Amino acid sequence: MPSEPVSTIRGVGSDTTKKLARLNIRTKLDLVLHLPHRYEDRSVVTPLDELRIPKEYYYVQGVVQDVALKQTKGRSSAQVELSDESGGVLTLRFFNYRPRWIAVFQKGVWVRAYGQLWGEYRHKSMIHPDFKTFNADPGPPEPEFVPVYYATKGLTSKHIRSLIPKTIQEVNLLPKFAHFDMTLADALQRCHNPEMSSADVVRKGPRRRVAFDELLAYYLLQQRRRLQHKTFTTRILDRKSHLIRDFLDSLGFQLTKSQETVAREILADMSSTRPMLRLLQGDVGSGKTVVATLCILRAAENGVQTAFMAPTELLAEQHYQTLSEWLDPLGIKVGLVTGRMPAPTRRARQKAIASGDDLVVVGTHALFQDSIHFNQLGLTIIDEQQRFGVHQRMLLRDKGNLPHQLIMTATPIPRTLALYLFADMDVSRITELPPGRQSITTTLHSDKHRAEVIEAVRRHVERGQQAYWVCAAIEESENDEQELIGTEDVLKELAMKISSVRVGHVHGQMKTQEKHATMHDFRDRKIDVLVATTVIEVGVDVPNATLIVVDNSSNMGLAQLHQLRGRVGRGADASFCMLNYTNPLSDTQRQRLVRLRESQDGFELADLDLQLRGWGEVFGTKQSGTENFRVASLAHDRDLLEEVNTVGAQLIAKEPELAGKIIDTWSPIESDYASV
Question: Is the pLDDT of residue 209 over 60?
């Protein structure tokens, strides 16, 4: 059966099983869903004297002229010299070889080899090529397109390729659902055994059919969750007092029309017996926290608690400070729970939460701890949704009796994509910025103009304003390909060139108290320039900070750069973003930076970033709250989504049993969480 472990495949022992697990291949089905990432064209043999481009892959054929075996410092090596009718010569090199491999290379034997070319002229070679030997001239090769698989240390693509025939027939047990004139089994057979003359054809045909099936499974799973969620009931949280009106009167500013609209949608959900599950999207600085506070007040006036979860301690502390300032005057106590709290403080918080004294509890993953017991949890709010998984949402939900759930994200996600990815939720979107939010002037600066950037920072501070200087690393990278500038180097640079400026330093490896103290000093204007890693990407709100400098900006994506830029522009003064880069830039890198300079629309920028880099790069699949797609690409397969929605709706209505089988094919574990 496809669900059987790979250890049941003939020839797969415990060592190979462990190596396959590193590629997330644990079952036979996982193996056949591990598709080739490219195909080697072995239909045309290149004469040896026409091998020109080093590091290019070639298919060659020749006769063995000589075999030289060497032993150097305990390391064995073999050199097999080939020649052909063109007069060219090529050496096949093997290191730490097995004797039986080399024994086949006898003088006069014909060899076909496929590998990467090294060297040039009469010193051309291939190292450990894939090869076959023949006792006589084999003649022209039969067209062959060999699949190449992502591999891991100790497990080659060739080894993985050898396992596929042992399992491929089991795809016939998969659901008999045909689309694009193929079943999933047909498509998988063609991906692993291509007959076409072009890998592009495989990608656009069979591979696209596999991607459709995976996207469909995700859609069906989300709809199953949505339907099951509708069967649940919970406590109605309707209006009991004037708390919300009193809070709005105390703010000193009016909500935008967009904030008012989404607030009405959310509060209406909370007034229902069905537990709310709603995603609130809003660009950087759009005022999501204010809307969330209205929900907290609605819960408080009904006497139930709110759990407010943030992905980092820095952001949790920011929310705690903001909510305390707003809610303490209204008699609503706010508590903070983080993983690094001293034991006495943690015990005091646990007691206040269990008694209901803390009506609002802000925290990180520490809220999941078994020692946290809520008195009566009625609302959960999760900030930065993409950094949490659905299982974590379930853990927080289980802390209460089906509490209402509000999920927030400042990561701009194009609307059509959001409706697909979060099909199990209702979606609200804040589409405008509050009055007073400044547009941010964005400029690009090569490393040749670094002195001018530093001088601009000095002038900026002299005017009484503050600045961020963001780096991608703490220490300078030793990787020549990236050459990342570290915060330590920037600190030294600023100390040398503008020593009169007060500079602070914050990064993710610092102790919480140190970070907290530094951020407080920056907020209290005791620090002029805060040199930081991207830890300040979310959550920091300092209105007097009106300049942000970003080093190595070409190494970052548009979504992240837009988030960083959103740290400024929060006050009444004009704000600026200076993006430093090092030449040469690729076309894609230049396109990203130019588009960021021209646009302030986070959703537009995220859409472009998705096209250029893909979902995993933009949002981080390792930490993403969405599923990690194995084959499908939301950047390249988005045109399938409308059809996925249509077909999915038809299956749910007419063939629910088949829909369940499709889910189980791709996400068998997820079946346990369908009710989240």
Answer: yes
- Per the document, the length of the chain is 676
Q: How far apart are CA 464 and CA 15, in angstroms?
A: 63
pTM for the model stands at: 0.72
Cis check: omega of the bond before 194, within 30 degrees of 0: no
Which tokens hold the place of 191? 């991906």
Q: How do residues 271-310 score in pLDDT, each as one tens digit? A: 999 999 999 988 877 889 999 999 999 999 999 999 999 8
Q: Which residues have CB under 8 Å from 603's CB, separation 6+? A: 283, 412, 413, 414, 415
Residue where the block lists tokens 């093997």: 94
- Other CB atoms within 10 A of residue 309 CB: 27
- Phi first, then psi, for residue 451 (nearest 5°) are -60, -35
Cross-strand partners of 132: 112
3 state DSSP class of 230: coil
Q: How far apart are CA 475 and CA 416, in angstroms?
A: 40
Task: Tell me: cis bond preceding 412? Omega within 30 of 0 counts.
Answer: no
> Could you say which DSSP state residue 438 is in?
P
Question: Whose structure tokens read 């930490």?
Answer: 623
Structure tokens at 512: 């919480």
What is the CA 305 to chain-centroid distance, rounded?
32
Locate tokens 């640079």: which residue? 493
Helix/strand/coil for 504: strand
The residue among 2 and 96 whose pLDDT is bigger is 96
pLDDT in tens, 561-572: 888 898 888 777
What are the start-end ranges of the E strands in 27-183?
Answer: 38-41, 57-72, 75-83, 89-95, 110-118, 125-127, 130-134, 145-148, 178-179, 182-183
The whole-angstrom separation of Cα 374 and Cα 343 is 19
Report the pLDDT value the prediction gives residue 402, as an integer from 0 to 100: 87
Percent helix, percent strand, percent coil in the chain, to nearest 5:
45, 20, 35
- Name, in order, each residue with C-beta under 8 angstroms of 193's C-beta and a sequence gap of 6 or more: 168
- Mean pLDDT over the full length of the chain: 86
pLDDT at 137: 92
pLDDT tens for each residue of 221-244: 989 988 888 888 999 999 998 999
The pairing of beta strand 466-470 with beta strand 529-532: parallel
| Per-residue pLDDT at 481 exceeds 70 | no
Question: Is residue 599 within 8 Å of residue 439, measured between CB atoms?
Answer: no
